[in-house]
Amino acid sequence: MAVTLNTKYLGDFVGDHELKAISPALYAAADTLKNADGLGNDFTGWVKHPVNYDKEEYARIKASAEKIKKSCDVFVVIGIGGSYLGARAAIEFVKSPLYNNMKKDTPDVYFAGNTISPSATAELLEICKDKDVCINVISKSGTTTEPAIAFRIFRELIEKKYGAEGAKERIFVTTDKCRGTLKAFADEKGYETFVVPDDIGGRYSVLTAVGLLPIAVSGADIDEMMRGANDAMEKMTSAPVEENPALAYAAYRNILYRKGKTTEILAAYEPSFAMMSEWWKQLYGESEGKDGKGIFPASVIFSTDLHSLGQYIQMGMRNLFETVVTFSEPNVDVEVPYDPANVDTLNFLAGKTLSYVNEMAQKGTILAHVDGGVPNMIINIDKRDEYNFGYLVYFYEYACGVSGYLLGVNPFDQPGVEAYKKNMFALLGKPGYEEMRAGLIERLDK
Ligand code: PA5
Asked: Is the pLDDT at 121 greater than 80, yes or no?
């Protein structure tokens, strides 16, 4: 199996009988997800997506990716939350966090519209100034402020560079099939469009056009990704908990949560996993954090963060558990050189590989944290490649859906995301928000 869950370090914290006790509720939650008869059931299209995906659109994604690769140096992906995290996570996981700096025959890929920062936007515009550029705006609703602003800015850049006709060849739009204004606008302008399926929410959408177009532009093999997701789907939707890492992960998280372990730290030892952790944080945070419930998802990259957060994890409040991500095989390796002067006294490591040193750091840390009262689980992944990415995405999504139902929440809505948006619109003077604006200004001026 490409992804496995090792729970041997939970022994001091969770008894076998507890897994048995939760099993009826666990299987009921999994059935609810598979039968699509629970809360938010309109958004469970991702469960069967690895077989049910639109094959005609999939072929167009590949064709557009080839066209983009040939016609630009810089590909700007505009989106926020579920409309960008998955693609960025995939490119960093499969290629590298340094993808843009690497020697390659594919365009640099930058992400915009996930911030309102003027500096970040200006810096990217500067990068694009003397380059050939294509853009992909991704917004299911088509109305999210951050990407909508960025789309205006980068569309203007493209139109100035290439004119309205040229822009048709360089602007790609991924949005709702018919709802919202973005689809109508794209059709009117003659831009190529892709669909965010009605029954798949943003944070579950990486294996749709949302993620697949940018991922394919980076040169990653999306066929292999879909194959990994398909294999994971077959396993996760049918195997019993003893052989099913998604069910086991959902169960143990819930058991730990009921014991007061309300923060989960996803700990990886590869910087290429950092954006995957960001994607995971959105997936679990938005799916579970509601109705006054939910595990707070946090993430670290070790050993880097052992020098910043290690102290807290070892000795701070004991409301934490850790899920450690490991890989069976390193993609590449580097040896520690011999130094005749041995000033750092590290010659005992000469000839050893960095993957070996990293593994010992990881093993030593797990034991130290378990001794410090932090339950640890290990998610092991075969290697960093497209197949394993697809497999891992499906594993996390399936476990998340089951986890949400086990917690008694709707894992597929995000009503809380609206609160800041309404305040921001009111403060910015959006028509229709006048009364709200007066109330907010009064509170701010107090
Ligand atoms: O998970 C979600 O649904 C959200 O995080 C959205 O992805 C995010 O708000 C962006 O929305 P949209 O794609 O409509 O611009």
From this structure: yes
